[in-house]
UniProtKB/TrEMBL annotation:
Coiled-coil spans in chain: none
Organism, scientific name: Nocardia aurantiaca
Protein name per Swiss-Prot or TrEMBL: LLM class flavin-dependent oxidoreductase
Domain Luciferase-like: 22-241
Matching PANTHER family: ALKANESULFONATE MONOOXYGENASE (PTHR42847), ALKANESULFONATE MONOOXYGENASE-RELATED (PTHR42847:SF4)
Keywords assigned: Flavoprotein, FMN, Monooxygenase, Oxidoreductase
InterPro entries given in the database record: Luciferase-like_dom, Luciferase-like_sf, SsuD_RutA_monooxygenase
GO biological process, one term: alkanesulfonate catabolic process
Example GO molecular function: alkanesulfonate monooxygenase activity
Keyword Lipid biosynthesis set for record: no
Key word Ubl conjugation present: no
Source taxonomy: Bacteria, Bacillati, Actinomycetota, Actinomycetes, Mycobacteriales
Amino acid sequence: MYIGLHLTNFALDTPSEWIGSSLAEVVRTAEGSGFSVIAVADHLWQSPWLGRVEQNVLEAYSTLSFIAAHTSRVELTALVSGVHYRHPAMLGKLVTTLDVLSGGRAWLGIGSGTSTGDVEGYGLPFPPLRDRYDMLEETLRICRAMWTDERGDSEPVHGRHFHVERPLNAPQAVRNSPHGGYRPHPPVLIAGDGERRTLPLVARYADVASLRPGPELPSKIELLDRLSAEIGRDPREIRKSCVFAFDLGPSGGGVGRALEQLKWLADRGIDLVIGRVAGVDELTPLEVLGREVIPVAAEFGP
């Protein structure tokens, strides 16, 4: 099992001029501690589930580019980009640029999207969920066209919501991954485990599934594997991941409990956990995870 770091708070209420140096320390420490992926949330306001909406939140792809410049190994993704924030061709270009400048470390993390209040507050479009699912599939088709046609000479991509006349993408993505096993484009992570719309899209388009770590997890993985097989994909091509929350406590006493939870997930087929870390700005929790959790979890498997 691999462990990733999910960044959702950025130095909390720290003055703006300190955020960059604090974030650089966090991501360098995370890479040095053995985290394999660094993910950032893609919202414009803080989620009310994680804090106050007034807390610091940075735009996802600017932040990922900054992280790329301060690291050399970890893979980089949004967790996840809602389809309502950006036109698909712009999103594909952003991920491609991140991939090129990071030496092939970018993922496309995508989902149907939610609002933290930012959509309403900024007056951004937020179509109904049914339309956002349609937009999600159209986005995946457009990004795939951009990543599989060197000259953009393939047929235009037309959908109900988006139209791309020429999916030209130059420079092209580096198209590799330190862990290997992906199709020849930046890995696509799709979040969600809805059985009617999301999991069929995961089966068709995803390299990584981001699932919820609840009691229904085994049945969701079983369904995903069945859907993949039905369309001729080897279910093993799709990595199974989930979000997590690490809270080791002030003295690291929560390590044992965290390992128990990770082992439960690994036994059910999860091979990547991307977790928020309580006290991440203090760095010590990252170092404890690097010493006491990441090496042990690396031995876990179904």
